[in-house]
Amino acid sequence: MNEQIFQKALQTVASRRLHAKSENDRRYREVDARIPQIAEINRQLAQTATKILDTLQSGENIAERLETLKRQNLEAQQISASLLKAHGFPEDYLDMHYTCEHCQDTGYADGGYCDCLKKLIASFGISRMNEYAQLTLASFDQFSLEYYRGKLDEQGRDCFQTMQQILQACRRYAAEFTPSSPSLLFYGRTGLGKTHLSLSIAAEVISKGYEVIYDSIINLLQQVEREHFGREHSEMDTLYLLLHVDLLILDDLGTEFDTPFYISTIYNIINTRINRGLPTIINTNLDLMSIRRRYEERIVSRLFAVYECMHFVGSDIRLMKKKNSAPLI
Ligand SMILES: Nc1ncnc2c1ncn2[C@@H]1O[C@H](COP(=O)(O)OP(=O)(O)OP(=O)(O)O)[C@@H](O)[C@H]1O
Ligand SMILES: [Mg+2]
Ligand SMILES: [Zn+2]
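^ thats the input. predicted complex w/ magnesium ion below
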């Protein structure tokens, strides 16, 4: 785990705790000013610790006197709660209100990191990864169907119609996205809009508040490899993020080296995310036959059985755009 990210997450938790405390102080001052009886009760309650100490030191009738103190405290708290209610405040107005009640904004619970801290680490980690990936998000509005007009695919079908359906399906997918949406496989030749549409989905899903990791499979696998063979191991490494993020977009499947570590990592990512019901979008230049030839059966069978496959057709738009913008000399 990246130390900077860990520190940043700890600081965030600490500032939440400070905020909870200062809000609590503010509510105390407000109530003290409005309800003098409560101010008095609070003063008495604040002396409880001293009274307990006195009792313990005196050595006489300790159990009995502690019991009395406890009863008095309870009564004082009940009176305080009903006074609050009578003055139109919620009964728990003077309790501490933490962002995470489970760890009381300490970041630690049940002998380890609390989920709230893990969530922060994950979300800071994801932002940093997307900065590295230079995530320039595309949008559906910049996606034109005109590039596909008048073109036929290898089977003689109208590319415009196929891509219109794909565009519609992607728009619907983004609009209805939840972390249990299906996984998608975009395949087709270069420059047909696979990356463009997956980034358009990413932009909309991020704007709905979900966490998305987008990067080329080469970058992601290299990062996982560096961490795997590096010195430190942690449950919050890149691999953890890839296995848990709401939406993972793996661009350019098939461009990675064919090493056993990469293949088993790809299998792990695909398989684990399917088991967790989390969606993944995979882009590839490979056609279905080439996928079958290149990857082992346990990967291929999962991709074909679980992913919704979309075949991108048309001719290289990167090239068309370049031609159109070429100087006229
Ligand atoms: N329908 C479209 N309308 C407008 N621009 C498009 C469209 N499709 C693709 N583009 C643009 O063309 C370029 C290439 O598209 P993109 O990167 O999405 O292709 P790709 O299918 O991912 O190709 P590759 O397989 O090489 O990664 C990008 O600049 C993209 O924004
Ligand atoms: Mg691409
Ligand atoms: Zn917590």
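The pocket of magnesium ion (ligand 2) is lined by residues 194-195, 251-252, 283 (CB under 6 Å).
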